[in-house]
Amino acid sequence: MLETELMSYLRQRLPAYMVPSAIVPLDALPQTPNHKVDLNALPAAEQRPGPRHGAPRDGLERELADLWARLLNRDEVGVHEDVFDLDANSMHVMRLVAHVRTAYGTALPAEDVFEYPTVALLAARLREAMDAEDGGA
Q: Could you report the per-residue pLDDT of 2-16, keeping only the tens digit for each?
């Protein structure tokens, strides 16, 4: 299948957060009367229903999973799901970083979200950051 081959090709050459979560084949791009791409006429990509990838194990994971679910307009986000596979982008990351700073008083670098793209990994990284700040005081 062409979509599968293209996804494989992209995964080999792009960072994970840049790989699209879906590919929608089109015969042609819809255009406006001015010959620009008509974004409103593009078909929506089907969201792949998948198994829930792990329930939160503690309050921090629960809060991060709920926050990601709100940011991504989803019912839920499993703790082992890569948020970039769920269409997270840099704006979502910045909102999450701002929330973490406000809620926990910890400055979490945006790079950490890209490096730790699941709730479980990010929660562990956030715990390390909070412990380091507590230990340094």
A: 777 887 788 888 887
H helix intervals, the chain:
2-13, 59-71, 90-104, 110-115, 119-136
Going from the C-alpha of 106 to that of each of 14, 59, 110, 123, 128, the distances in angstroms are 30, 16, 12, 12, 11
Pull the structure tokens for residue 23: 């590919």
- Classify burial at 50, counting beta carbons within 10 Å of its beta carbon; exposed 0-12, middle 13-18, buried 19 or more: exposed
Are the C-beta atoms of residues 90 and 97 closer than 8 Å to each other? no
Asked if 19 contacts 11 with a C-beta cutoff of 8 angstroms, the reply is yes
Contact assessment for residue 107 and residue 120, using Cβ atoms and an 8 Å cutoff: no
Tell me the angle at which helices 90-104 and 119-136 cross, rounded to the nearest 10 degrees: 40
Cα–Cα distance, 76 to 1 (Å, whole number): 30
Q: How far apart are CA 59 and CA 127, in angstroms?
A: 12
Rg, the chain, Cα only: 18
- Residue 45, pLDDT above cutoff 80: no
Answering whether pTM is above 0.90, one says no
